[in-house]
Amino acid sequence: MKTIWKLFVGDIRRITSNVVSIIIVIGLVVIPGIFTWFNVAASWDPFANTGNLKFAVANEDDGYRSDLIPVKINIGDQVVNTLRSNDQLDWTFTTKKEAINGTKSGEYYAAVVIPKNFSTRMMTFFASDGDHAEIAYYNNEKKNALAPKITGQGADTVSAQVNETFSETLTSTALSVASQLANQLDKPAAQEQLTQFNGNISDFAETLTDASGTLRTFSTLTQSARHLLESSDGLIANVSGNAKSAGTTLKQAGSGVEDLTGALKTGTTALGTALTDSANSFTAMEADVDSLFGNAGTQAGNTANALRNQATNISKQAQSYQQIYDSLDALSANEKLPEAVRNAIDHLKTNVGTTITQLNDLASALNGSADNIDAKVSDTTAERAEIKKLAQQAATSVSGIKTDYESQLKPQLDDIATSITSTTTALNATAADLKGALGNLNGTTKTADKNLTAISSVLDSTADSLAGAGKKLGAFTGTLTDALNSGDMSAVKDVLSDNTDSLAAALAAPVKVKRNAVFPVKNFGSQMAPFYTILPLWVGSLLMAVTLKTTVSRKVRKELGDPKPHQLFLGHYGVFGVIGLLQSTFSLGGSLLFLHVQAVHPLLFMLSGWVSSLVFSFFTYTLVASFGNVGKAIGVLFLVMQISGANGAYPLAVLPKIISGISPFLPATHSITAMRAAIGGIYSNDYWFAIGALLLFIPPLLLIGLLLRIPLVKFNHWYVSKLESTKVIAA
C-alpha cells in the first residue's frame, strides 16, 4: 500500500510540475462540463418558442349562396380572420401554390389549404345527404427530424394543435352562421328546412335507441352462451371417456376481439359453439348411463349423488336455454327487423321451448332414479331406458337447434351486427360536431377482452353510450320541435344560437386532462441533464486514456524499487481517478449552481457523478492499459452504444429489442438511472440499486487489470511491432 501511495503522490507531483501539463489537466477537467452546460442550456425550454414555426394558410373558399340565405357566406374568410388573432403558430396567409411549394422548400413547417367548396360543404349539414367539410394538411417531415416532436410539446401534437385550433375555429364559425341564419327564420322556407333537419336528428336518435336495445340482446345471448358452456362442461366433467374434452372449444372464443364488430360476431359464434357443446354433453351423458346404473348395486350412494349432480347441471342448461328463449323473444319484438329474421327467430323459439321441456323432464327423471337408488329399489331397467331416451332426444333437439341457428339465424344476426357497427361509425363520424352532447364511444367499442364475460361487458357499455346519445339527441329534437310548433321563432333562435363560443370550445376539445406529475421535473433541460452529463463524463474518461500515459516509465519504476505489477496498475490509476472526480465536480456543480438544474437530492446528484467518474475512468484506464490502442477503440465503441442504449433520450421500449437487451450491460445506463432519481426523487431505493449496479463493473475490471493484463502486455508488444513494421500505421 505504501508503494501504491508513493506512486500516486509522485504522479500528482509530476503532472503539476510544469505549465503545459497543468493546462492539459485543466482542459481535461473543463471539457466535459462545457459539453454538458451547452447542451442542457440549449434544451432548457424548447417549447416556449413554438410560435416561431411558420405555418402557411391558403384560403380558396368561393363561399356559399342559396335561396334560403340571400347573402353570400364565406366561412373560409371567417376562419382566416379568426386565425389572425391566434399566436400559437406563426400563421402566414398565402396562395395554395405558394403554401405547398413553401412547405416543400422548408420555408414553412406545414400548410393547410381551405378548398373552394368549403362553405358549401359546411352548409350541407342542414341537408338530408350532408357531407363533411375537409381541409388539406401538408407537413414537411424532412426539414427537421425532431420538429414534429418538439412543436406542440409531444409526439405528433403539432397536428393535434392545428386540428384543435381549426376545429374550434370552424365550429365557432359554423355555430355563428347558424346564429345568423336564425335571423331568417321567420320565412316559411327556413322553417321547412329546420323541420327537415329536426326530423333527421329525431330519426337518428331513434336509430341509436334501437341499436342500444339490440346490443343488450346480443349481450344477453353472449351471457347465455357462457352459462350454457359452464353447465355443459359441468355435465361432461361428471361422465367418463374421451367426451371430457368436448367442452374445451369455446375457451378461446373471444381471442383477438378488438372492436365492436368483433365483440358482436364473437357473441353469435359463441352461441353456436355453446349449442354444440351442449349437444355433446347429452351424448356423453347417454353413453355414461349404463356405467352409472351398473355401479348402483355396489356404490349406491355415489351413483345417486352422480345422478343428482347431472340433474343439477341439466337444470342449469334448461335455465340457460330459457335465457336464450327470452333474448330471442326480445329480439323478435323489434318491428324494424326484416320479416325473414322474425320468422327464423320464431321457428327457433319453438324448438328452444321444446328443448326446455325435455331438459326439465330429464332432470326430473334423474332425480327420481337417484331417489329410487337411495330407497334400494332393485329394478331400475325401465328408468335407465327412459333416461337414455330423454338424453338422446335432448341431444337431437339441441343439434337441430344448432343447425337451424347456424343456417337461418346466425347470418341474419351477423348482418344486424354489421348494421349496428355502421350506426356507431356514423355516430363517431359526426363526433366533431356532436362530441359535447354525445360523448366518445371509442372507450367502449375498442376494449373487448378475450372472454365472453368481457365481450358482454363491452356490448352493455356500448349500449349505454348509444342509449345516452339517443336520449340527449331526443331531448334536443323535443326542444326544437316545441319551439317550431309554438310558432315563436325567437325560441328557435335561442335553441340554435345559445353561447356559440363556449359550445365551440367544448366541441373542439370535449375532454380536459388534469395532469398529475409523478416525480415532477420543472423543465426539459433538467430532464435531459442526466443524458447530457453522463456521456460527457465518459468522453472525458476517454480523453484521459488518450492523453495520459497508462504505463509507468522505467525511471519511475527504478525509483520505486521495481514495484509489482498490481502496485503499478493501482497506483498509476490514482491520477486518473482524481482528474475524473474533478471533471464530475466541475460539471455537476456548475449545473446546480449556474444552470439551476433541478435536484431533489443535491448531494446524491453529486454522488452519482463522482461514482460514475470513478467507474468510467477505471473502465477506460483498464482497457487502454490492458489492450493498448484496441482498448481505446473498445472505449469508443461503448460510447457509441451508450448514446442510444443507455436509456438517456428515447425509452428502451420503443427501440429495437437488441438495444434493450444490451442496455443493462452499459455503465451509463445505471449512471443515468441514479442521476434521474436524484433529480426527480427516489422510489423504492432505485437510486442505490443503480449505484450498486454501476459498482458491479469494478470486479471484472480488476480481474482484467490485475490478472489478465500481464499476458496481454506481451500481445500488445507483438501488436505494436507489427504495426510499426508497416511504416504507415502508427502504433
From TrEMBL:
Gene Ontology CC annotation, any one: membrane
Subcellular location: Membrane
Protein keywords: Membrane, Transmembrane, Transmembrane helix
Pfam families: ABC2_membrane_3 (PF12698)
Primary location: membrane
Membrane topology classification: Multi-pass membrane protein
Keyword match Transmembrane helix: yes
Ranges annotated as spanning the membrane: 20-40, 529-548, 569-597, 603-624, 636-659, 687-708
Domain ABC-2 type transporter transmembrane: 23-193, 373-706
GO MF, one example: ABC-type transporter activity
InterPro entries listed in its UniProt record: ABC2_TM, Phage_infect_YhgE_C, Phage_infect_YhgE_N, T7SS_ABC-Transporter
Full protein name: Hypothetical membrane protein with similarity to phage infection protein
Origin species: Bifidobacterium adolescentis (strain ATCC 15703 / DSM 20083 / NCTC 11814 / E194a)
